[in-house]
Design goal:
228 residues; six-stranded parallel beta sheet; binds magnesium ion; Rossmann fold; 6 strands; alpha/beta
């Protein structure tokens, strides 16, 4: 069965679409069949999908609250991984996606506004968990991290958040022009700058996501409770 991963945040512009496209393409290049459901009003992932020529990578556009569950059902038939690129803020499409997610990735920059809004998103995931009556593992991921430089304000937010009990990815999305260039080219850094730090960065994030999903699958596998 396919794993559903939503990219969600109450904050706009925190790299949800960049990560959905980057990680989705990376997974497809690794051999997974990937369907990216584009529920972002700006449809940048769909435009990337039109340009991309990556086998087993398809982007379904114009996903909204009225059709997301149907689109997910259809995607289940072919996909190993279903990624959902959600719009910023809270919305019915987000509630539906979160309730159906096996994992939620919450991107946040090292800013107090992003951190506050990330915590709102954590609360939305908790609500979705109540609605669906099963655990929805989630993790924050720091985004647009400046290589080699951390401002005092960014450091303060990072340290404050370290004390808050929400899982955080150890890999972070660095601030790099290549992550903007992806959308011009319809390619990810692994294709246009192989071996570069950006390709390595996306590979590390993708590996961490896959590791999380594998752990969830192990926990849910029948008989694991008895074996534990
Ligand atoms: N790691 C990065 N390095 C450089 N630029 C980035 C990075 N991540 C995002 N950006 C830029 O920041 C802007 C917002 O990113 P993106 O669209 O991915 O955020 P979003 O969370 O999907 O926004 P929205 O809430 O509007 O859907 C874009 O212009 C994007 O190119
Ligand atoms: Mg977006």
């Amino acid at each position: 069965m396919a794993a559903v991963v939503s990219l969600a945040s109450a904050k706009g512009g925190c790299s949800k679409t960049t990560l959905a496209v980057g990680v989705g393409a990376e997974l497809a290049l690794d051999g997974y069949a990937v369907v990216l459901l584009d529920a972002d009003l700006n449809q940048h992932a769909s435009k990337f999908g039109e340009k991309a020529t990556i086998p087993n990578f398809s982007v379904i556009g114009e996903v909204d609250e009225s059709n997301i569950l149907q689109r997910m059902k259809t995607a289940y038939q072919t996909a190993d991984m279903i990624l959902v690129d959600l719009p910023g803020g809270s919305s019915m499409v987000a509630v539906k996606a979160l309730t159906k997610s096996h994992f939620v990735l919450i991107p946040a920059q090292h800013s107090i506004m992003d951190a506050r809004d990330a915590m709102k998103t954590v609360a939305q995931v908790d609500d979705a968990q109540e609605l669906g009556r099963y655990d929805i593992p989630r993790s924050l991921i720091w985004t647009r991290v400046m290589p080699g430089f951390e401002s005092a304000a960014a450091k303060r937010v990072r340290i404050d958040m370290e004390n808050i009990d929400v899982p955080k990815f150890s890999s972070r999305l660095m601030h790099r022009a290549a992550f903007q260039e992806m959308f011009l080219r319809g390619e990810v850094p692994r294709q246009f700058k192989p071996g570069g730090s950006e390709a390595e960065n996306l590979a590390a994030i993708t590996a961490e996501l896959v590791g999380n999903i594998e752990r969830i699958a192990e926990r849910q596998a029948p008989g694991t409770e008895a074996a534990a």
